[in-house]
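Reader question, answered in our methods column.
A reader sent in the components of a multi-part assembly and asked whether the whole thing could be modeled at once rather than chain by chain. We filled in our standard form and ran it. Here is what they sent:
COMPLEX SIZE: two components
ENTRIES:
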Amino acid sequence: MSMQAVLSPFYKLFEYFYESIIEKVEGAGDFALHVSAILYWTFKKPYRFQLFVDQLYFIGNKSLFIVALTSIFSGMVITYQTYIGMKVMGAYTLVGPIVVLTIAKELAPVFSAIIVAGRCGAAMAAQIGTMKVTEQIDALEVMGISSRQYLGVPRVWATMIALPLLNLVFLFVANIGSWLVGVKVLGIEEAKYYSKLHAFVVPNVLWEGIIKAAVFGFLVGIIGTYHGFKVQGGAEGVGKGTNAAVVWGMIIILIIDYFLTNLLVPILYNI
Amino acid sequence: MESAISCQNLTKTFGDHTVLKNLSIEIPKGKITTILGYSGAGKSTLMKHFLGLQKPTKGKLLVLDKNVSELSDDELRNFRKQFGMLFQYAALFDSLTTYENIAFPLIEFTKMNKPQIEKRVNDLMSSVGLQEQSLHRLPSELSGGMRKRVGLARALALEPDILLYDEPTTGLDPITTKMVNDLIITTGRTENTKELTSVIISHDIQATLKISDYIAFLEKGEIIEFSPTKEFKKTTHPTIRMFLDLTTH
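And here is the structure of the entire assembly that came back:
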């Protein structure tokens, strides 16, 4: 066997890794350019306030029902599971604060963001992707209109504003669900359910959730629009872009959640 | 003859691949010029250069006496307002009605009030032969020919100096093709648009011979023939001869 034949599989393996790395680096560069373009066009005139309001209505108002429905059942199930655990230790007076903290700090921002990534991130990628394959984006550019300013900027900032509001709706409705199950179904005395709340639930707990939701909102908007502008080809490309927007949106939310918690806890609670 | 677009030794490369090779052409002002060529000859790349959407690797491109390569991004956006473009499939905004599509550039770039915009849209609709009943229809409710008309009305809204057509008759039936060709001639030659320069990218030779004042033939990134239509028909260049004979028989 010649030396060339022996080395051939290694060469192919090297080539595979090399191309894969180049592709990832190119993708990261492309994404960074998209983010900088969105930031750049945010501060350039004309400011498209009406488009921003339209997107805020679509992302915020039209997501209310699905967020409320998800949150009430999340609050109910978390309360039930927490009660089972706490009852063993005889500490069921802690059910109220534990549930509120869990929802305010984690469940409300993360679940709201995942719902919006699934509903609106996908819609952004599909709308912009379809406009790209049907040359509507070229039509905007030929007219001298920045497609990123016209389509990207309103969507990104509307998601960033809508998500903290949806997070508060989630928190409110989930706590109603928690109260219903805790007090009305499981029979925890109302006074005991509320007794420790003031000791654990401080305003910064709310702020932690709101800040997280705003960051997730920015990321969902950026990822959704990025995958829309990246679409190539026809219907298949739009499908791939939509899928990537949802998958990457959800993955990034969960990864960033950990690092954001690490960053915010020392700042907000002096721990 | 005054040029609207002047390409001087234009070269465009993507990596190792050269799409436009040392290309020179003077597109006359106020005339209908068609750039013919096989698929992949570089026609779309050349059109993107005219619009400043791509910059040449080498050479000089003057459009309406402006060196496109030297314009900043903001200047390019203003510069593009002098163009109108009819896309292959019209590229109408699918969430907007016919009226909103035509009014879109007027709302974006002029200070016209609502009645003025309405009047201008009505004028544009009648100039491209659109009926009033299609005013509030979405693009998905329009036929291919109607979409082309709306696309042309939108392209003409800001009274451009240069009107670009990207494969205007591709995929249309013979009757709609004739309608679009007639529309291109009418638009390019009517009194109020006397100075309008029309540039058509096409591989439809029969339509090209009917509607063009000048024809250029692009092959592998080079202009191999550029002449008035009458002379173009008599060319002896073997590639063009083959193209003409294959598509006219």
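What stands out: Chain A has one domain: 53-269. Residues 53-269 of chain A form one domain.
Send us your own complexes using the same form.
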